[in-house]
Amino acid sequence: MDQVLEFVLAVKAAHREINRRFSEALNPLGITVVQAEAILILADDQPLTLGELGSRLIAETGNPSRLADRLATAGLVHRRPSLNDRRHVELTLTHDGREMATRIRQARRPLLDWGHTLLDDSQFAAATTALHRVREQS
């Protein structure tokens, strides 16, 4: 098999396994992997506009507006017009959203622990560098 094709298939399989494990960890919280990623992004750097959130959601292929709507309906996110530019919507976490971020971090701990059993720091660094090179070419 061609090395590039083998690499592509290995990345896809690894992504699928990581998402499966993360999804299982999130099931008791009643949220999806993409919703969890959005909540964690907002927890680390809010407020964000819909566009900013969308650009940071690497795995999300859908519409960030629909995602924000679902999170707002669930009471996890506030949507409000931007104070700087009323054409944009800013997103911030509600109190429940901040609590959910804490719960997500706790739920993903076993996933991170599992990852640390697979590779050492130098292997992770090399793999991450390689994947960033691929991504930068898009």
What is the fold's blueprint, element by element?
Elements: H1 3-26, H2 33-44, E1 48-49, H3 50-56, H4 64-73, E2 77-81, E3 89-93, H5 95-118, H6 121-136
Antiparallel strand pairs: 1-3, 2-3
Helix pairs in contact: 1-5, 2-5
Description:
The protein has about 140 residues and is mainly alpha-helical. Helices cover about 65% and strands about 10% of the residues. It contains six helices and three strands; from the N terminus they run H-H-E-H-H-E-E-H-H. It has helices spanning about 5-25, 35-45, 50-55, 65-75, 95-120, 120-135; strands spanning about 50, 75-80, 90-95. Strands 1-3-2 form a three-stranded antiparallel β-sheet. Strand 2 and strand 3 form a beta hairpin. About 15% of the residues are buried. The model has no long low-confidence stretch (mean pLDDT about 90).
Strand order of the largest sheet: 1-3-2
User: How many beta-strand segments?
Assistant: 3
Helix proportion of residues, in percent?
55-70%
What string, H for helix and E for strand, traces the elements in order?
HHEHHEEHH
Helical element count? 6
Calculate the terminal CA-CA distance, rounded to whole Å: 24 Å
Low-confidence stretches: none
Helices and strands: which structural class?
mainly alpha
Strand content: 5-15%
Form type: globular
The Cα radius of gyration reads: 17 Å
Largest sheet: 3 strands, antiparallel
Mean pLDDT: 90
Q: Which labels suit this protein?
A:
138 residues, mainly alpha, three-stranded antiparallel sheet, 9% strand
Summarize this entry quickly.
This protein is mostly helical and 138 residues long. It has helices spanning 3-26, 33-44, 50-56, 64-73, 95-118, 121-136; strands spanning 48-49, 77-81, 89-93. A three-stranded antiparallel sheet has the order 1-3-2.
